[in-house]
Amino acid sequence: MKILFHALALPLAFHFLSLAHAIPSPEAAHGGSAQATNTTDDAMTITPRQSSCLSTGTQSTINALFSSGGANTIVSLCPGVTIPITAPVVFTAPGQELSTQGYPTDSSRATILIQPGSTVTSAIRGNWQNNVKVLNIQVDGNQPNAGYFGGDALLEMACGRMGSITGATDGGIVIFGSPGSHILRNTITSSSSGLQFGGINMVDPTWSGNYSGVVVSSNTITGGPGSFINLGIGMGSQVWSNPHPETNFGQVTVTNNVFTGNVGFSIVMNGWLGGLTVTGNSVSGVTTPSSSFASASGCGAVQQAAFADSEQLVYYPAGVTGSSGPNVIQSQFTALSTNASNWLCLTNPAPPLPDTKSFLPNTLSVDASTSRVVSLRDFHVQVQGDGNVVGIDTTGGVWTVKWASSRFSSACGPDGSQCLLAFGIDGNFVMYDGNGPLWASGTDGSGQLLTFSREPPWVTVTGSNGQTLWTIGNL
To answer: Which of these, 126, 446, 451, 459, is most buried using a 10 Å CB contact count?
Structure first.
């Protein structure tokens, strides 16, 4: 069983409070000791004891302690220490723990740091070991110095409570099968800019697509401001950007998760052999309309329609039925009548067009074969094939000519390339055809700035002190 944290794309160090589903009382072991009592499945009390700690070393030092100590070994790192690694720290037996002495929650937490020159992608591996714990440390992938390498995740661990994950660009938590895993009380927040693909993903058919007994509950997934999360929780083999022919299966519970801020789609389900209990999830804090922070222009028709209606909870009934059992789905879900895969299709919205745009001398040259001179909000300027330059209001999709140069030429050439509109290096704004200048602003030697506007006087050339030297109305 494993949960794969797609942390390779993260520029930040992480603080994972716990990666254990059930935490036994550990025995004294190499590198320090602690007492941990798990009173319930979801509650943990840690009582630190002072002892020796590891103040220097590499992954080899830690791995040797785990290998020699066996089950329930605790390797306690000294506060503030940085352990450079060129290969993963590997848990070798059940109940082992890697932590900072005293369990601090501030910047004194020890750091595991991937070194430049190494191609390692996983800093810590706990695959297939039960009840292993990473407590109160920071794990830094060191992308700016070590570079980016595709491969396994920064931490590969068993199931449990992770605490806080901020700034992922792929998925916050990605579950690859992992029957019996519990993903509880995590806070997943997008970065301050750009988009994050997913919050918690159950989309891959790894390990034959078996998700039996997985519980995803009481997590908070927040997008923005200044960014967004495309898909809060994705469930099924037909949801992600690369739909799989296999179908995921298993009785899974997804309850009481909270979605807030800029989240494109909170939960989407398609490609599951039934057995889903999805209840009590809250989307009341999600930003509406969705178009205020994202664009669905690259999505299919079904996704675009759901996005336009700001639908947050979506499933395809025919895509979540089968042998795993009946479904219990909260009433707020929208049932799709048409199959649709790839819900990872939202993009950043195009920035709003300006009301004006200016050019310095020798920075504008457009011929009639290109046509478009400038695009403004609900307005554009173009050079026509006959040499006429026009300003067109496009409000509401209705084109209305607001001004025109009304100077025409038959010498633009068959493709219009001989008619050229340019703001020259000398500050003169000129329309040329195949025979020479067709008209000019006459501001050579004095024109410093050419400005197009969606309001009168439409086009101006100004001088060094900002004084108006010429407008399109002077033609």
So the answer is: 126
CA distances to 380, 410, 419 from 403, in Å: 11, 21, 19
Ramachandran angles phi, psi of 445, nearest 5°: 90, -15
Element at 64 (helix H, strand E): helix 59-69
437 cis-preceded (ω within 30 degrees of 0): no
pLDDT in tens, 56-72: 999 999 999 999 999 99
Of 200, 259, 195, give the one whose Cα is nearest residue 229. Answer: 195
Fill in the DSSP letter of residue 26: P
Using alpha carbons, select from 141, 139, 195, 142 the residue that is nearest to residue 167.
195
Q: Is the pLDDT of residue 320 over 70?
A: yes
In terms of Cα–Cα distance, which of 23, 65, 30 is closest to 46?
23
Q: Give, as one character, the DSSP assignment of residue 27.
A: P
CA dist., res. 56 & res. 141, Å (int): 19
Q: What is the DSSP code string of 65-117?
A: HHHHH-TT-EEEEPTT-EEEESS-EE--STT-EEEETT---STTS-EEEEPTT
Q: In this predicted structure, what is the pLDDT of residue 187?
A: 80
Place of tokens 């390692």: 120
Mean pLDDT of 201-223: 87
How far apart are the C-alpha atoms of 461 and 68, rounded to whole Å? 80
In one-letter notation, the amino acid at residue 394 is: T
Q: How many angstroms separate the CA atoms of 61 and 91, rounded?
A: 13
pTM of structure:
0.56
Residue 66 phi/psi, 5-degree rounding, is -65, -45
The pLDDT, as a whole number, for residue 128 is: 65
CA–CA dist 403, 390 (Å, integer): 6
Residue 118's pLDDT band, with cuts at 50, 70 and 90, is confident
Token output for 242:
């690369």
3-class state of residue 395 by DSSP: helix
DSSP symbol at 351 = P
Look at residue 442 and tell me whether its pLDDT is greater than 60. Answer: yes
Structure tokens at 317: 């009934």
Residues 271-287, mean pLDDT to the nearest whole number: 96
Per the CB < 8 A criterion, the answer to whether 342 and 336 are in contact is: no
The mean pLDDT of the chain is 83
Compute CA distances 191 → 104, 170, 224, 262, 403, whole Å.
25, 11, 7, 11, 45
